[in-house]
Amino acid sequence: xxxxxxxxxxxxxxxxxxxxxxxxxxxxxxxxxxxxxxxxxxxxxxxxxxxxxxxxxxxxxxxxxxxxxxxxxxxxxxxxxxxxxxxxxxxxxxxxxxxxxxxxxxxxxxxxxxxxxxxxxxxxxxxxxxxxxxxxxxxxxxxxxxxxxxxxxxxxxxxxxxxxxxxxxxxxxxxxxxxxxxxxxxxxxxxxxxxxxxxxxxxxxxxxxxxxxxxxxxxxxxxxxxxxxxxxxxxxxxxxxxxxxxxxxxxxxxxxxxxxxxxxxxxxxxxxxxxxxxxxxxxxxxxxxxxxxxxxxxxxxxxxxxxxx
Length: 309
What we know:
Layout: H1 2-17, H2 25-40, H3 45-73, H4 75-89, H5 92-107, H6 111-119, H7 131-178, H8 190-214, H9 217-227, H10 236-247, E1 249-252, E2 255-257, E3 260-262, E4 266-268, E5 271-272, H11 275-308
Parallel strand pairs: 1-5
Antiparallel strand pairs: 1-4, 2-3
Helix pairs in contact: 1-4, 1-11, 2-3, 2-7, 3-4, 3-7, 4-7, 5-6, 5-7, 5-11, 6-7, 7-8, 7-10, 7-11, 8-9, 8-10, 8-11, 9-10
Family: Belongs to the CobD/CbiB family.
GO molecular function: ABC-type vitamin B12 transporter activity; threonine-phosphate decarboxylase activity
Keywords: Cell membrane, Cobalamin biosynthesis, Membrane, Transmembrane, Transmembrane helix
């Protein structure tokens, strides 16, 4: 019951305050991870694993220690501590804060403004994107980050409490920093990429199922089954294919990265992406979060009733 209440409190804090504007913990962690990477980098997978462990595990241990100390003092103090960590880890409001400007620029025909806005949330080159490709990029970002920044953090908190959400969010951040297949990071970042993949195996599939439940279910299941296996990421594939199907929108396809166009499988079905698909993707994630919070409360009530039966 406490875990469900903490999750609701964290989502409410995020809705009210959004991301911390000053001294965001993930910014500080990024500096810490950068310092470790500069000191330990080598073209070695084992060195990358050592660096990952030094970057992440001390903070997971600290969260476990502080949570235990808080619980010894008061259950309320432990709940406040956990809610604060989960609030810092999720980014539900941030999805809208970054994606809505893209939709607003597309509404007014401001393609340059839309390209600039989407360039702040995706890693692909945006200078030559058409309005449809801009809308597709923003929609894909919302769907994928719905898992990475929202559902994954919620799930690992509900499973393992404060240490779980710290482990998941820091591992996800390191994947974003070290997981690229560049010559410098291809071997060193292998551990970061593989650990993030492992931690997302369950959240990604629950996120995909949530999209199917909250959108066009038949289309979502069909796209997940047929299209996800062709995607290069074992976790992004189910999330984005199911999300595109749930929205009945066409995503995927060729996209420009580092000066050249890369062929990617097609995702979804139905209409071309536009400003409306961005907003519907945001609504899909929000509705999914509501379903998760209600489900966590119901499970807590059932568990409590069974314990006292």
